Amino acid sequence: MRFQLPSRSVRSIVRPLEPLTHPRLKMPQSSFFAKSVPFEQIDKLAISGGYSSIFASSQPSVPVVGNWEQRFCRLADTFQPILDRVYDFEVREDDVWIVTLPKCGTTWMQELAWLVINECDFETAKSVDLTHRSPFLEFNGVVPNVPHDTIAAANELPSPRLIKSHLPAWMLPRQIWSKRPKIIYVYRNPKDAAISYFHHWRGMVGYQGTKSDFMHSFIDGYVNFTPCWPHILDFWQLRHEPNIFFTSYERMKGQLGQVIAEVAQFLERTLSQEQIQQMQRHLSFESMRDNPACNHVKEFESMKAAAGREVEEFRFVRRGVVGSHKDELTADIIREFDLWSDSNLRDFKLNMDDFANYSKFASL
Ligand code: PPS
C-alpha cells in the first residue's frame, strides 16, 4: 500500500525547535526569558494577552541531559509574573509533588496520593475541596488577578504537602533537585490527553475554534505546557531516581489496585487490603465524577469569569476512558499524531507502550 502523507506538511509534525540565537525579549533579571509567538497562531486559545516560548536563562539544575539553548515551554503571557516565584519556591524534603502534562489523570492521582498520605481519611477527602488539600502551584498563571494566591497557599500548608504542577522538570522550583522530595509523574497517551484538553478549553475557557485547529495547536506546541514529548522524556530519563515515580493513566485504568499499592510503597506508607479496596471504590470513575470535592468547581468558576465567555455545560471528570481519541478524532488527525510521536521517539527507540506499561516496582 502506498504511504500517504497527511494533508499538512511534514515540517509541522517534526519536533518543534526554536532558532539557536534568539533575542532575550522579556523578563529581565529572571531565571527565564520569553520570546513572543505570533498571536494569530493561537487564535482563541489564550485567555487574554499573548503567548510566548519560555527559555531558561542559564543551564537549569535538573539532572537531565538536554540541549538547553533550544529547550522551551509555551505558556500564555499571564504566567510570566509568577514563573520566578515558582522557581524560587521553598521546597520541603517531605513534600510530595504530582507533576503531569494537563489532562493526564492529575486529579485522579492527587486524590489517590492524598489518601495514601493521610491514612485513608475519606471524610476529609469528601468534605474539603482537593484544590485546598493539594494546590495547583502555578494556577495564578492560568488565571491571574484572582484573590486566592496559590503559591502563598502552598507555602503555608502544613507538612507533608501534596503539590500539583504541570510545568516541565526544568521549570519546577530549583530546590526540587537539591532537596529531592518525592515526585509522582503521570503519563497519558497524548491523543487522549489532547482530546480531553480540547473539551477542557471549550468547557472551562470557552474556546470557540475547531477541534482540528486545537489538535494542530497541540501537536505544534501552542497550548500551555507544551511541547509535550520533551516534558515526558525528561521524566522518563529520571524514572530510576529513588525519588521519582513514573506511571501512566493507562495503568491506573487497568490496574488501579496495583498502582495504589505501588504509590504506597513509593511513599513509604502501609495500606491494608481492605483500605486498597475502599480506595478503589472511592477512586472509581463514577465516584470521582459525582464527588464535588474533586471536580474543580472553584477553578472552573474563576476560569469562566476570567475568560468572560459563555461556556457550554462541562463535567471535569468527563469520560474517563483509554482510547477516547479513537471515536473523537478523524483518521487523518490520528495519523498526524502518530507521525509526530514517532518523529519524537524514534531517536530514543521508544514507543508509547513503553510509557503506558512502565512500572517502577514491576515485581511487586
Ligand atoms: S487537569 O485539568 O490537567 O488537572 O486534568 P486531569 O485531572 O489531569 O485529567 C482529567 C482527565 O482525567 C479523567 N479522570 C478519570 N478517569 C478515570 N477514572 C477516574 N476516576 C478519573 N478521574 C478523572 C477525567 O475524566 C479527564 O479525562 P477525560 O478523557 O476528559 O474524561
TrEMBL record:
Q: Which InterPro entries match?
A: P-loop_NTPase, Sulfotransferase_dom
Q: Which GO terms describe its biological process?
A: sulfation; xenobiotic metabolic process
| Classification via Gene3D superfamilies | P-loop containing nucleotide triphosphate hydrolases
Q: SUPFAM superfamilies, from UniProt?
A: P-loop containing nucleoside triphosphate hydrolases
Source species, domain of life: Eukaryota
Sulfotransferase domain boundaries: 94-348
Quote one Gene Ontology molecular function term: sulfotransferase activity
Listed name of the protein: Sulfotransferase domain-containing protein
Organism source for this protein?
Drosophila yakuba
